[in-house]
Amino acid sequence: MTDEPAHDHPRRVVLGATCFADAEAALGLALGLAAQTGAELRGLMIEEETIIAYAGHRRARALDLAGRSTGGLSVERMVAAFRQDTRRLEQSLAEAARKRPLRWSVTLERGRMAAVLSGAAGIGDLILIGYRPARPATGGLVLVLGEDDGRGIIGLAGRIAGATEQDMHVLVPPARRAEIAETLRQAGLHRAVVESYADAAALHKRLGRMSPAVVVMAPGAGGAEAAARLVEIARAPLILPVPAKD
Amino acid sequence: MAPKTLPEPLAADQLSLRIDPGSLGFETTAELAPLDDWPGQDRALGAIRMAAGMAHPDFNVFVLGNPGSGRHSAARALLRDAADAKPVPNDWVYVNNFDAPHKPIALELPPGKALALRDAMQSLVDELANDIPAIFESDDYQTKRRNIEQTLSETHEEAMNALVEKARARGVAILRTPMGFGVAALRDGEVLTPDDYDKLPEDEQEEIDAAVAEIQDELEAVLKEVPRQQKEHRRQVEELNAMMAEEGVDAAIAELRRDFDGLEKVQTYLRAVRRDMIENAALFLVREESAQAGAFPVATTKHYQKPQFGRYMVNVMVAHDVANGERAPVVEEDLPTLANLIGRIEHATENGALVTNFTMIRAGALQRANGGYLILDARQVLAEPFAWDALKRCLRTGEISIFSAVERFSLVSTVSLEPDPIPLKTRVVLVGERRLYYLLAALDPEFGTLFKIEADFDDRIERNESTTGTYARLIAGMAARAGTRPVAAAAVARMLMESTRMADDSERLSLDISGIADLLREADHWAAADGAAAVAPAHVDRAVAEAEHRAGRLRALSQEAITRDTVLIDTDGGRVGQINALSVVQIGKTRFGRPARVTARVRVGSGKLVDIEREAELGGPLHSKGVMILSGYLATHYAPDLPMSLWASIVFEQSYGGVDGDSASAAELFALLSALSGLEIDQSFAVTGSVNQMGDVQPIGGVNEKIEGFFDICAARGLTGRQGVLIPAANVKHLALRQRVVDAVESGAFRILPIGTIGAGIALLTGAEAGARGAEGTYPEGSVNARVEARLTEYAEARRAFVARANSREGGA
Question: Is B181 within 8 Å of A66 when comparing Cβ atoms?
């Protein structure tokens, strides 16, 4: 088992995103997690290298959420945009800290998302990758389990689903379906729906059609790299606990 | 024309009213049925009753008369009687105009229904505040809502999935950047850097560019579709909300519709409420974050008090309590400001601006009196800015439109309302002084059109046996209402005497009810001090004396100035060309008479009669007219064949204030005749009376105060038995003198002599016969008239000689 009761009391919640819009969309969830667990909230604006590289192309352009062109790009403009988004994240957390007790910090780091997140989060932390969907989230909370994730992660997902008043779906490898169903029943999560996925492709295909409000990914289902990929597929924020021990 | 005999002094019993208490037929007023009427006011009361019963509009009433004549109490009582016979008028409310909130709708309801509508709407809101949340929390609604959202999500997800797949297939990735979405080429799963891109062959670059462009265009299309999808989503959700809300609203409002069946405007309003509640069902879902719900369960919360439900409230303007037997209203507004009269629209501050809505309209007196009567004091209405103008506008248009003074001047540009005007069906009764009525009638062209009825309250009534009995009952009624002791018959007789004094006429009783009531209460006070069981004449005497004493400081000062010889007045001896005239001073409640010395000086002249008061601009027009009449008298009574060659000056000595009225013109003529005849005037006398060109002595006002004013001076110096006052004969009926004067006359120490002609007066004053022109055209030798005519002839001769001398000097030069 790679899950531990440490999920109940994470040391930090690390909210990572490559733009303020994505961070803001997950901010409520991050603040809720920090408040529930008493953890420090660390905002991490990731100056994604691929984005910087893309901005260097002479024909590079960007579209806003309504599909309107935001003008030609350049590395300088993109770097400035990252800094501006970092400041906006700082302002948001400062405003939140005025309304409730909160330990927080914000940093800007350049690199690849998965690597930055892996480097920033430590044992016992919760990674929350932000994402702003363009459509209503009707799919509730989706828990993705791997081969050997256990009650701890189920408990964490159940608490988040309860706190956000979401329905819960659990995606498991076929071999664990019955076991997980029983675990859910014992945990009192009678309304959770269990589905199995044969492989990663099937998982991606299913997730792509679920419109979840949030995805909780068990460490056994993959690391930061896989999490970053699932975020793009699910088009929803994703929570990834960093295991206490391998 | 000189009288054949000199007038005799008046007897004591001619100087004031004497009533035998025994003739009144009762011992005290406790035996009498109190009079709750206004005697002598049939004309005015009939006018008020007619106006009160008149069905036609614009027959409003102006009740005019002197203060204290009972105008207000009579108007109040008669209108109350009339109102009791009228049906209760309808209720009025203002409700929200959902299509144009700045134009609140006025609803007319049967009496008693306004409060019912208000309470019913409050209950409706409370009911829906519980029902609608339940509807939207139901499984049925949640499922339908989720289906709509799911459909939208699926549509978008399918499009995005397809795009992502295609992008992967074309070797491009969709990036999320701080500046928006970007589409980047991939090589081996990584974003192609610019350097790597530049190293590629041209055809490969073109392929990559084409792929990026294609995916970018499709991404743009997908993203542009999102707002339209969201709009469609909102439309479907709103449709669902309306459908769910409609069921709840219809069920709740059905009872209201039944309760107000038959009232078409109310039904129209309820249809608008239904429509608005369905469209704004979300209002019922708002949850406040209250710190605590209190000790009571949530179900009893008055949801209708929450700000979001203000739009459904009913602003009751006028509600009649039919259940408790309320009748048509009689409203008396004693502070008739513009707002108190026509109502007002209140404002509140919100974010530094003034805002208002239909719930902030307040009723004024016109609304409250609608269907009944409104009593206003005319002076108060005229004194309040814009009130008179607004009242006339409402009466003229037949509607009550509410506006504020600041709006009128456009001083404040702020959110305001244009509420439906309420039809006006009120009879307005203005109460005021006569002077105000005549001013309005003369200067305001609308006044006569809007106030067609005048109710003119008389200030006196003829005194006879019948009215005396009525007056006694009036006093009995006053005593009962004021809670005083019963009034003994002798005291009633004394009050009747005082009433004639107030009326300035022994044949009339004053209708200054307020003044009589004050006298009664003051007399009762002195009766209480005496420990008496009933009010006696001595108490009335005391009340009168105390009142005169309280107001007598100026009179005492005036008298003191004379008795100390600061103001020179002779009360014995004789002087040529000098006489004691009498005047009345009225300041506030104080009214007293005092003598004034009038002197006349004569010489040759060209017929000019100099009125020094007029020359010094101290004489009013009436006084000047009186003096001019003297010229006419002289010109027609003496040396009519000769040119008037007199120069004469007449003055009120030591008078430094204004003088008006002609009540001293007889005295002025006596002084002039004395100066012309050279005969002394007996300074024991004072004279009052006006004179015409024929020499008749005409009546004047204030005869009682004037007599008493001279009497008090003589009494202070010691009565000689010769002193007295000459008054116009026509004023004898006006006498109501104080007891001290009556007593002096009775003892022969003072005289009051009525005169009807100048001849009678000059004979009394000079002791010489006035003289009548004989058949030969001359006055008897030695008579006053003969002497006057001789003097004027002498002046004419002197003047002719002077002119002849002047002409001859000119001819010689």
Answer: no
> How many domains does the structure of chain A reveal?
1
CA B372, chain centre distance (Å): 19
- Each residue of B131-186: pLDDT tens digit? 888 888 888 888 898 888 888 877 877 888 888 889 988 889 888 889 989 999 98
CB contact under 8 A, A211 and B153: yes
On whether residue A4 sits in a domain, the answer given is: no
* Distance between CA atoms of residues B145 and B418, nearest Å: 41
Q: Given the residues B663, B665, B690, B783, select the one marked as catalytic.
A: B663
Is B706 among the residues known to form the active site? yes
SS3 B584: strand
Q: B460-462 and B422-423 as β-strands: parallel, antiparallel, unpaired? A: unpaired
Q: What is the DSSP letter of B486?
A: P
Q: Which CATH number is A19's domain given?
A: 3.40.50
**Domain annotation covers residue A1:** no
Question: How many CA atoms within 13 Å lie on the side-chain side of B652?
Answer: 28
Do the Cβ atoms of A194 and A143 come closer than 8 Å? no
* Residue A99 domain flag: yes
Query: In this structure, are residues B673 and B762 in contact, taking their beta carbons and an 8 Å threshold?
Result: yes
Give the dihedral of Cα atoms B127, B130, B131, B135; nearest 10 deg.
160
Closest CA to B132 of B233, B236, B235, B247: B247
- Write the CB contacts of A180 (distance below 8 Å, at least 6 apart in sequence): A145, A154, A170, A172, A194
Contacts of B143 (CB under 8 A, 6+ apart): none
Q: What is chain A's pLDDT, residue by residue, as a tens digit (246 residues)? A: 344 445 567 789 999 999 999 999 999 999 998 988 888 999 999 999 989 989 988 888 899 888 888 877 899 999 999 999 999 999 999 999 998 888 999 999 999 998 999 899 888 899 999 998 877 677 889 999 988 766 778 888 988 888 888 889 999 999 989 989 988 998 888 889 999 999 988 998 899 888 899 999 988 788 888 888 899 889 899 999 887 654
Could you list the beta-strand ranges (E) of B450-492: 453-456, 460-462
Mutate to test the interface with A, among B157, B183, B188, B233 (most CBs of A within 10 A): B157
pLDDT digits (tens, 9 = 90+) for B291-338: 444 444 445 578 888 888 999 999 999 999 888 888 899 999 999 999
Which residue shows structure tokens 């209108």?
B79
Nearest by CB to residue A135, choosing from B153, B191, B221, is B153
φ, ψ dihedrals at B118, nearest 5°: -60, -50
Cβ atoms of B148 and B237 closer than 8 Å = yes
| Dihedral angle sign, alpha carbons of residues B362, B364, B368, B371 | negative
Which pair of tokens denotes residue B673? 């005749």
User: Which pLDDT tens digit goes with each residue over B542-581?
Assistant: 999 999 999 999 999 999 999 999 999 999 999 999 999 9
Nearest beta carbon to residue B149 from set A21, A54, A136: A136
Inter-chain CB proximity B190 and A50 less than 8 Å = yes
Give B498: exposed, middle or buried? Use CB within 10 Å, 0-12, 13-18, 19+.
Answer: buried
The token pair at B379 is: 């002076």
CB atoms B182 and A65 under 8 Å: no
Distances (CA, A) of A24 to A10, A32, B179, B570: 21, 13, 15, 111
> Is B663 known to be catalytic?
yes
Q: Which domain holds residue A189?
A: 12-241
Q: Is there a domain that residue A145 lies in?
A: yes
Torsion of CA A68, A70, A74, A78, to 10 degrees: -110
Question: Which tokens go with B385?
Answer: 């800015």
Task: Tell me the pTM.
Answer: 0.71
Report the run of H or E that residue B609 belongs to, with start and end.
Answer: strand B608-611
* Total residues belonging to chain A: 246
